[in-house]
Amino acid sequence: MPDPLHTLRLPVAPVEPRQEFAAALRRRLGQRTGQFTPGAATARYFVTDLDAAVIFYTQQLGFAEELRAAPAFAMLYRGELRLLLSVLGQPSTRESADTGEPGQAAEGEESPAAGGSNRIVLGVPDLAAAVARLRANGVRFRTGITTGITVRQALLEDPSGNLVELFEPLAGYHERQGGTR
Amino acid sequence: MSTVSVRYVVDDVDTAIAFYVGHLGFAELMHPDPAFAMLTLGDLRLVLVSPVPADHPGGGSRPMPDGTRQQPGGWNRFMIEVADLARTVGTLRAAGAHFRNEIVTGIGTRQILLEDPSGNVVELFEPVRQEARLTPSAPAAAGPPSPGPGA
What we know:
The complex is a heterodimer of chains A (181) and B (151). Chain A has helices at residues 19-30, 50-60, 127-136, and strands at residues 42-47, 64-69, 73-78, 81-87, 119-123, 140-141, 146-147, 151-157, 163-169. With 181 residues, chain A is an alpha+beta fold. In chain A, the strands form two sheets. In chain A, strands 5, 6, 7, 8 and 9 form a five-stranded mixed beta sheet that branches. The longest helix of chain A has 12 residues, at 19-30. The radius of gyration of chain A is 24 Å and the shape is elongated. In chain A, 33% of the residues are buried. By secondary structure, chain B is an alpha+beta fold. Helix content of chain B is 15%, strand content 32%. In chain B, strands 5, 6, 7, 8 and 9 form a five-stranded mixed beta sheet that branches. A four-stranded mixed beta sheet of chain B has the order 1-4-3-2, covered by helices on one side. Residues 136-151 of chain B have low confidence and may be disordered. Strand 1 of chain A pairs antiparallel with strand 5 (77-81) of chain B, so a sheet runs across the interface.
């Protein structure tokens, strides 16, 4: 006599082993060394004008706006990069634990500022076309196109004078396949 | 080309590699030239370069057309999420690391500015709001936890 509960049982679905998924998970867990959280690709730039910066990064460089807490802070994304824009002289740009005045450094300390040589690096498939398009839009470049080892690159400035590097891979260019995961 | 790349200018690439690998858990991908190295941590690819003359084959750290040398420092930085900021800061201080400030509690995070050997800044942060977390602690973080049966 058949089991009367049989019709209520769920069918047994065969589950294929997903080797790629398992391997990716193992790699990810394996990177969890100690106290640092991997997969964290976040950069913070200081800007003088939040709205101008958001317009620049979204319209010229293809970032998407995630949130804007005017007048001090915005969060943008481009691929796996999260870019935080902090406005000088606002509470969120406070860098010192003991200053009473937001946006001001403690006595004898330096205040945050825009600029410097460090920068985010964005890949483009056709650098000459990208540079021409951006120049036509009025974007300032600090260099022309220079050729390095396996890449061509150019340095542009955001409205606050922060650098962004564009690069196009050339023959022999190496990048880990599938990102770093 | 989905990996995120950041270029930092350093005084000495070998010293910088020792710092980022030894203190912050980066892995070295390549170091083919004394003035160039590529490191990785999660989705972040960190390109380290030291200033080179205009005729150097490496293009990333040559002077600007007006002769201005690229140099370390400034305030723009990448950020690394840590689980326990106070503990991490203690560990790094004990290892001789320099911090530019003390732990600051901001709107979404607790944060501190760590300096690399060339004076570049790296922001370490611990989220104090769930939205500031890069890696949600549980996959079912989309809604409030549902009460169990009989709750």
